[in-house]
Each structure stands twice: as structure tokens, then as C-alpha cells.
Specification:
about 350 residues, alpha/beta, TIM Barrel, 9-stranded mixed sheet, 9 strands, about 10% strand, binds iron/sulfur cluster
Length: about 350
């Protein structure tokens, strides 16, 4: 029998999904409830509202995901451990044979929860870090006393040798600690990633952008953390397919909100197909039509843009910020221009001030 490495297996699976236009990966936001109040958060409420899906509704959606061929399921929130039925949901997904991933802030991880996570067989646990010190971490989370539970939760996961990655959203409030956070995390023997992109809330509120780094500061951080060519520690951007909506959303991926809405992605909350009124299979057809039917308007400059190969703007960024997917946002144009300049000049020392 031919044996494939995990990397080759997932690469060929993704290629097959692209070819057949089948949904291979799902992000499932189990709740908007969260015990933290991060300043940059795109979560519209942080509270558990009555319209969130019941356990039975979640089970039914998971069954339907398995039926349409979903292989990888990422559970996130809010904070997933706010839901009391979270392990019943994990067990159900595990029984369906899907590969499971989890995103959490770790502040609710106790030794008992870490033991149960060991049984749940997650492929990866992505833990968010908001600062290397108590002051900065709690400035971002807005929650005094949250740094201690975060460190203890993280240590519980590490001591059980669970597959942890620690990710830092870098913003104006914590950029001065990104190097220290990397040292802290790597000193624990864990892989560190960071991301400099901050997005509007899913309801269009742009207040998180007040905490976004300037384009010049983003480039400085990338150069100081990675060097001009090494992208290994940066969060991986969505792959591009050459269409108007260029990412994998609606091609091989989709997302589900805590209210049972099926969307292109967590950060691209459309078309809000209601899974309480229809099925995942029907919703996938609606998502495909949404992507295929999206057309640029007169504001669309990308095909002639000379920094397109550097651009990190997604159609969702323009849509969330302005309601128009076609527009070029000045922030991203400036960022792409600076990145291009830095790579051409190859003078990272000009930018190295982190
Ligand atoms: S932990 Fe995550 S969901 Fe909770 S407030 Fe922070 S960014 Fe938002
Ligand atoms: S910088 Fe603006 S015009 Fe250029 S590719 Fe990005 S979004 Fe399009």
C-alpha cells in the first residue's frame, strides 16, 4: 500500500477539493460568549445569547458536514470553553471521523480539561497570546487577572504534550512585546506565530482598526521578526485562486456562526445562509453562487496594480470597511508598496526598530 506523509496527504486532499469544488474545511464558531474583552476583537457581542445553537442543532450540523465530505473542522468562538457542552460536541465530531482543530484563549484550561483534551485527539490547538507581560496582556484583554489563568492553562496543555501553537495578534497596544512573547513561547518549547492584520467587527463596526499598526510598523515588525524573505513564523495567508474573490472561501472552505448561519468565512460574514431553515448541502450551493456571482465594479483597480503580488487586502476587508468589495483600501496599498520597496532595496536595517 502506498503511504503518504501527512503533508502530502493534506496537499493532495486540498487539490482534490479544489478540483471538485467540495467543502473540505469548516470553521465552526461555537459561541460568541467570551470571558475576555479584547480591544481588537471582531466578535460582535462577547455574550451568549439565546439564539445560539443548541447541542442537538450543533450535532445535526456536524452530521451534515460529514455527509458533504468535510474533513477538517476548526472549533472556535468567542471562547469555546464558555459552552458547557463543548466536550459532547468534540466527542460527536470525533465519532464522525473528522480531523479536529481548536482555537482558544486557554484561560479556562484546567488540569481536568487538559486531560479531556488529550482524549479528544485534536490535530492542533491554537492558543492566543496578547502580550508577554501581565500589564500588556491585560491591557489588550480588558480583563484584570487574566494573565495568570492564561499561563497556567498553557502550561497544562504543554505538560501533556498536546499539539499547541501559540499565536499573537500584534497591534499598537502590544507590538513592543512581540519579540518577548516569541522568546517566552519558544522557551516553553512551543511554536510561535504572529499576525499583524486586525479586522473590523463582523457587524461592520470598525473600532478594532483603532488598534491596528500603521503599514510602516507592520513592515518593521515583519523585517525584525522574519527577515526580508523568511515567512516561516508569519500566520499563513489564504491561498489565492485568481478570481474576484480570490481565497478558498466558497471554493473548499466555509464557516458557521453560533446562530447557525453559513458564511464564506469568519471574517467574511456573507451570505448568512440560515441552517435552521435549510441544509449544509443547500447552503454550500448558495455559497458557491455567492462567490461565482460576485463581480467587480468601476472601483476595481487590482488587475493593473503594480503591487498586486504584495497585497494582503482581501475582498472581505473592503466589504467590511466600506460595503464595496471592489475598492482599494489605502492602508493595504501603502503596506504593499512599502513591502515591495523593502524587498527591492533589501535594506532591512532601515526598518529594524522593533
Ligand atoms: S479571546 Fe478571542 S473571542 Fe475573546 S475577546 Fe479576545 S479575541 Fe475576542
Ligand atoms: S493595493 Fe489595492 S489595487 Fe492593489 S491589489 Fe491591493 S487592493 Fe488591489
Amino acid at each position: 500500500m502506498k503511504r503518504l506523509s501527512p503533508h502530502r496527504f493534506f496537499t493532495s486532499l486540498a487539490a482534490k477539493a479544489r478540483e471538485t469544488r467540495m467543502p473540505e474545511t469548516v470553521t465552526f464558531e461555537l459561541t460568541y460568549g467570551c470571558n475576555l474583552r479584547c480591544v481588537h476583537c471582531y466578535n460582535p457581542t462577547h455574550r451568549v445569547l439565546p439564539q445560539e445553537l443548541s447541542t442537538e442543532e450543533v450535532f445535526s450540523i456536524l452530521d451534515q458536514c460529514a455527509d458533504v465530505g468535510v474533513v477538517t473542522l476548526t472549533f472556535t468562538g468567542g471562547e469555546p470553553f464558555v459552552r458547557p457542552d463543548v466536550f459532547a460536541i468534540f466527542e460527536h465530531a470525533k465519532r464522525l471521523g473528522m480531523l479536529l482543530e481548536l482555537i482558544s484563549n486557554a484561560t479556562r484550561i484546567t488540569p481536568e480539561i487538559a486531560d479531556r483534551l488529550q482524549q479528544a485527539n485534536f490535530r492542533s490547538l491554537a492558543i492566543s497570546i496578547y502580550g508577554a507581560t501581565k500589564d500588556t496582556y491585560e491591557l489588550v484583554t480588558g480583563m484584570p487577572g487574566s494573565f495568570g489563568p492564561f499561563i497556567r492553562g498553557l502550561e497544562c496543555l504543554i505538560s501533556r504534550r498536546l499539539p499547541v501553537i501559540v499565536r499573537m495578534p500584534v497591534m499598537t497596544d502590544n507590538a513592543h512585546e512581540v519579540q518577548d512573547a516569541r522568546t517566552l513561547v519558544e522557551g516553553m518549547g512551543i511554536r510561535f506565530q504572529y499576525c499583524v492584520d486586525i479586522h473590523p467587527k463582523t457587524n461592520g463596526d470598525t473600532s478594532p482598526l483603532l488598534h491596528r499598526l500603521s503599514p510602516a510598523d507592520k513592515v518593521r515588525i515583519d523585517l525584525a521578526m522574519l527577515g526580508p524573505r523568511d515567512q516561516a513564523a508569519a500566520d499563513e495567508p489564504c491561498a489565492r485562486n485568481g478570481g474576484f474573490i480570490e481565497c478558498a472561501c466558497g471554493q473548499t472552505k466555509f464557516a458557521i456562526t453560533p446562530y447557525g448561519e453559513m458564511n464564506l468565512c469568519q471574517g467574511f460574514p456573507m451570505p448568512k445562509y440560515d441552517l435552521r431553515k435549510g441544509t449544509v448541502k443547500e447552503g454550500w450551493e448558495v455559497l458557491k453562487q455567492t462567490v461565482d456571482g460576485a463581480r467587480p465594479n468601476d472601483h476595481y483597480e487590482c488587475p493593473t496594480c503594480d503591487v498586486r503580488d504584495r497585497c494582503r487586502q482581501g475582498r472581505n476587508d473592503a466589504w467590511l470597511a466600506t460595503g464595496d468589495m471592489s475598492v482599494c483600501l489605502p492602508h493595504y496599498k501603502e503596506l504593499a508598496t512599502l513591502e515591495k520597496k523593502a524587498s527591492e532595496l533589501d535594506v532591512p536595517s532601515l526598518f529594524r526598530r522593533v
